[in-house]
Design brief:
The protein has about 260 residues and is an alpha/beta fold. The chain is built from 9 helices and 9 strands. Helix 1 runs parallel beside helix 2 and helix 6 packs parallel to helix 7.
Length: about 260
């Protein structure tokens, strides 16, 4: 609180708890030039309200990580105001917070900026309701490189996400595991892969894709940048073996399969 020159503060994984919320808010207010704030996995809970209100006084924030803090759903509206105040935001990490449908307020704010490069919303119990709002964020942020939506249940809402991804060319990391992706959306996912030929990471674990995996793999044969491909627990069967072999040959930099 006694300095005013801080540009980055990273205190992930310290279990600092709610008690430090007010002090953190004071630190933020004292350092109006703060650009990076990482507070992941700290059990901040309700104290994030004070932190978010303090962040609303900043205008140059570029990276914010509040993942794993058991945020209450009413924090979403405060985070939305933070986004409105910081239209240069590049990274937003809110994974593991059980935000559910309240995340739509945050997504609506993100659809008004165009600087976002990383969005992490994994493990928030999201459903198909967020599909339209997610699509709008992607279409507005055409330089988006990383999108993590793992461990939700977006299901048919993925149709809107995949259609939006077809309009941009910048995605490198796409996390989609455990989202109950319907077979009807596989064609749209395939088109999204073909539009983003710099894709480096794709996680599709636990989506029960079965034979529809073959179409996705054919699309992956047409890129050469893949480094990580995860398709565990999809019952892809023998039929996909030859196509998978072609994917491996096309992507000589593959590190994890």
């Amino acid at each position: 609180c006694n300095i005013s020159t801080l540009k980055a503060l990273k205190m992930d994984d310290n279990q600092i708890g709610e008690r430090c919320g007010d002090v953190l808010a004071s630190v933020i207010k004292s350092n109006s030039g703060l650009k990076e704030l990482h507070l992941g996995n700290n059990k901040l809970q309700r104290s994030v309200l004070n932190i978010a209100k303090a962040l609303q006084h900043l205008s140059n924030l570029e990276s914010l990580d509040l993942s794993g803090n058991n945020l209450s759903q009413d924090v979403s509206s405060e985070i939305a105001v933070v986004i409105d105040s910081n239209d240069s935001l590049k990274e937003l990490v809110l994974g593991d917070n059980n935000l559910q449908s309240s995340v739509i307020i945050i997504l609506e704010a993100l659809s008004k900026i165009s600087t976002l490069k990383l969005l992490d919303l994994q493990s928030n119990q999201l459903t198909h309701e967020v599909g339209d709002a997610l699509g709008a964020v992607i279409l507005q942020n055409t330089s988006l490189e990383t999108l993590f939506l793992d461990n939700n249940n977006i299901a048919c809402g993925m149709m809107k996400v995949f259609k939006a991804l077809q309009q941009i060319k910048s995605i490198k990391n796409l996390g989609l595991q455990e989202n109950n992706i319907p077979k009807a959306a596989v064609g749209e996912l395939t088109a999204a892969i073909q539009s983003n030929c710099t894709l480096e990471l794709l996680t599709l674990n636990n989506n029960n894709l079965q034979s529809s995996s073959e179409v996705i793999l054919h699309a992956l044969c047409n890129i050469s940048t893949l480094k990580v491909l995860e398709m565990d627990d999809n019952q892809i069967g023998e039929r996909c073996g030859d196509v998978l072999a072609s994917v491996i040959k096309s992507n000589s930099g593959l590190k994890e399969l």
